Amino acid sequence: MTASAKGANRFCSDLLAELESRGTPPNLVLSADTGVEKPETYDYQVMIAAWMAARGIPYEMVRYVPRRFKHRPPYYDILANVLTNATLPSISLGGKSCSLKWKAAPQEKFLKAWTPAKTAWSRGQKVVRLTGFDASPQDTRRYTHAASITNDLFDTRYPLREWGWDRALCTARIEAVGLPVPPKSSCIICGAMKPDEVRTLPAWCLRLIVLVEARAAPRLRTVEGLWRRSTRTRPGRMTDFIRAEALLPETEIDAIIRDAPADLVRFQDIAALVPLAERPALSDWLETFNAGRLTR
What we know:
Blueprint: E1 4-7, H1 13-21, E2 29-32, H2 39-54, E3 59-62, H3 78-85, H4 97-113, H5 115-122, E4 127-130, H6 137-146, E5 154-157, H7 159-162, H8 167-176, H9 195-200, H10 203-216, H11 238-244, H12 250-271, H13 282-290
Parallel strand pairs: 1-2, 1-4, 2-3, 4-5
Helix pairs in contact: 1-8, 3-10, 10-12
């Protein structure tokens, strides 16, 4: 037996719908939560999880769990990670390690402990991973890179490409089974977001963007902010875009920049004096920040 698993970064509703209709649903649907996806992505995750449960399709959401915090408050998502280290997500610094750390690694870890996978490997078989890259030009570029990577434990298949489905056909298949088309997935502090995506974020997400850039600002040398460098169409700092578009009041932006990073450092310094087992997590400080109690 070869166990099959499928990554669900966009929840791949098109692939799921077609496989289920053919009577060949995956043995497992697996996705990774960075902890700071867009609100509409979490709403979709709840809906599609219920759809899968009704059809008996096993689904697991996994997360990367840090183990070492030194003298720092514990953190459990990418937002708290960058705030702790006064930095930006790696994509804003020219890298890709945030995706590897917060998405790929926890899925790989889960699969290596998954009983059907271990059974397959004990028989000398590979686990078949189904990935939802379609036949559109954008996904073709992603596929070209991914297909060049070999793995001793996994064989990867790309059914949407095998069927010749582009993005339009994928959308039509999702709608045909009565499902909404999933929103574009990304972290709310991702440098890959387009200006229109930032415009649609709720105010509490915009406040976190301002916070992240303010916290990292003293240490930035080669980039301006989450968008790296200014272009003709947008600034390098999302904060400057948020200010120019009046997405948040100027007084609120200024208060976050002025007060929040210093208050966060004080919180870290106090937490460092507390034994790890009793130490408050960074999420405690973020709860206070999100409630607006630091910037009034």
